[in-house]
Specification:
mainly alpha; 196 residues
Length: 196
C-alpha cells in the first residue's frame, strides 16, 4: 500500500511539472530560451557551442566527442562540410550585395540566385559562388547548341573534381570551344559586375 501511495505522489508531481511547463510558466521575460538577452554565441553551425560546455557542466563536450567516435568521424566531417558551405554562402551574399548587376545579367533575381547556390552547396560545399554563376551563364550560352551542357551537369562535373574546362569537354565541347565559351562567359560576367 505504501508503494502505491508513493507512486501516486510521484505521478502527480511529474504531471504537475509537465502541466506547468505546457502552460508556459517559468520566470522568463521573453527573448527566447532562458531569456538571456539574445541568441547563443557563435554563428552558423557553431552557434551556441562557445558556452555549451560551461552551461552543461562539460556534458556537451562529451556529446560531441561521443558523436565523433560513434560515427567514425562522420559527424566531424558533417560539421566541416556545413562550415565550408556556410562560409561560401556568406561570401556569395557579400558578392551579391557588391554586384547587383550579376543576377540581372543572368535573367534572374538575387533571391533565386542565392537559393539555387545554397541548394548546390548541399551537394558540393566547396563550390564557389563564381563557379556557380559561371555554370549558370554557360548553360544559358551553350545549351541550345550543346543540349548536354546544363548547369546541373556542369555542377556535377565540378563536384567530381573536374575543372570547368574539363567538364565542358566531358559534355561534348572541343578544347577550343570550351576556351571560347569560358572567355565569353567571363567577359559577360565581368561586365555585369561593373554594372551596379
Amino acid at each position: 500500500m505504501r508503494k502505491l501511495i508513493v507512486l501516486t505522489f510521484l505521478v502527480l508531481a511529474l504531471a504537475t511539472g509537465a502541466f506547468a511547463q505546457g502552460k508556459g510558466r517559468g520566470g522568463g521575460v521573453g527573448g527566447g530560451r532562458g531569456s538571456g538577452g539574445g541568441p547563443p554565441t557563435g554563428t552558423g553551425v557553431d552557434r551556441g557551442l562557445g558556452n555549451a560546455s560551461s552551461r552543461s557542466g562539460g556534458r556537451s563536450d562529451d556529446g560531441l566527442s561521443n558523436a565523433s567516435t560513434k560515427s567514425n568521424g562522420r559527424s566531424d566531417d558533417g560539421l566541416d562540410r556545413a562550415r565550408r558551405a556556410s562560409s561560401n554562402m556568406r561570401k556569395a551574399d557579400d558578392d551579391l550585395n557588391d554586384h547587383p548587376g550579376v543576377p540581372r545579367a543572368l535573367h534572374t533575381n538575387a533571391n533565386d540566385l542565392r537559393a539555387g547556390y545554397q541548394s548546390a552547396l548541399a551537394t558540393n560545399p566547396d563550390l564557389t559562388f563564381g563557379n556557380y554563376v559561371s555554370a549558370t551563364r554557360l548553360d544559358q550560352n551553350l545549351n541550345r547548341r550543346f543540349p548536354n551542357v546544363t548547369r546541373d551537369a556542369i555542377l556535377s562535373g565540378l563536384a567530381s573534381g573536374r575543372s570547368l574546362g574539363q567538364t565542358l569537354q566531358d559534355l561534348g565541347l572541343s578544347n577550343d570551344e570550351s576556351k571560347d565559351a569560358r572567355k565569353q562567359a567571363e567577359a559577360e560576367l565581368k561586365a555585369a559586375r561593373k554594372n551596379n
